[in-house]
Design a protein that fits this description.
Layout lengths: L79 E5 L2 E2 L4 E2 L7 E5 L3 H10 L16 H12 L1 E3 L5 E3 L13 H11 L3 E5 L2 E5 L1
Helix pairs in contact: 1-2, 1-3
Length: 199
Amino acid sequence: RDYTIDVSGLAPPYIVKVERVTPDIPPTNTLEQNSLFWQTYTTILQQQFTYPNSALLYVAVDTTYFNAQPTISVLSKGLICTIPSNYNPITRIYTGIWDGTFTRAYSNNPAWCLLMLLTNPIYGTGQYISLAQVDKWSLYTIAQYCDEMVSDGLGGSEPRYSYNYYMTARVEAFAQINTVLSQIRGIAYYAGGQIYFAI
């Protein structure tokens, strides 16, 4: 049996007591059970919550039309990355000479996704690696190589490399960094207090 108990008044801790009020009658056969035990409790908070750094999807469906819970699939555009100030991520064009400053926009360029993975403190290694420790100039060269348009085999063209990957599980940082680099045939190495890259 499930019971919902509305609590109000002073703040927690609340004391919940479970007491049996019916007599403890021994069972008359092996199929009868008369024991009482506490299984679990769940706290239900009727509040509005914010989920920072998360993308949420809410779908309400009428279950009379489905035999089981329906599977929801979405096409997500991805992360807002730190990209060079002279870079247009839509046209994939680098205008003029880069002065070393950054802006933020969506990009699926593997080099800029790697930069976000390295420097973001929430889902990356940004608590341990700062932007000053990453050689942005070698990443810039690699990013231009990734954005070069090549034949798609169907008469059109596409960027040489793009990174469209969902990180859905916690993995070791070094393994994830190598996953990104392996897709562009790249390596990372540490020298003189900085992380350098090569392809």
